[in-house]
GGDEF domain-containing protein (Clostridium estertheticum subsp. estertheticum), 151 residues
Amino acid sequence: MSYYDYLTGAYNRCYLEKEIHILNTQIDLPIGIIFCDLDNLKITNDTMGHEYGDRLIVSYFNILKATFAKSSVIARTGGDEFIVIIKNVSLNKVKALFALLNESICKQNKHNRELQIKVSVGYSFSETSIGVTRQFINIADKNMYKNKLSK
């Protein structure tokens, strides 16, 4: 079974579930979770076309790939959703990466007026992964929705 998303080359949900299982049951590490959702992708696809929407998705994945180390798991979990699992990390590093991600999006939008990325992002952190990985993904998801609602 393939572990990669066909459009971006990111890991897919199947691979993410495997990683979650390992972190939740076998390997105990401090983890950071970044949950991302592109804003208004359906409207973008309906008005600008799916090709434009795909370009947004790929551009955003490229920002994620440039921001997070190769040891992080970057997975496309839905049409416009990405989850990043940062392994063996401190809370301060998660906060710094979160800030760097937001800064990178601003730079992209400043330099490429044609392809404006609008995204809602939330994060969470846990000192341990055993038994709580899914819980902290849910916390990051809730924090992402708070970010979305604040716009």
Q: What stands out?
A: DSSP finds five helices and four strands in the chain. The CA atoms of residues 6 and 94 lie 28 Å apart. The longest strand covers residues 31-38. The helical segments are 13-25, 41-48, 50-67, 91-111, 133-149.
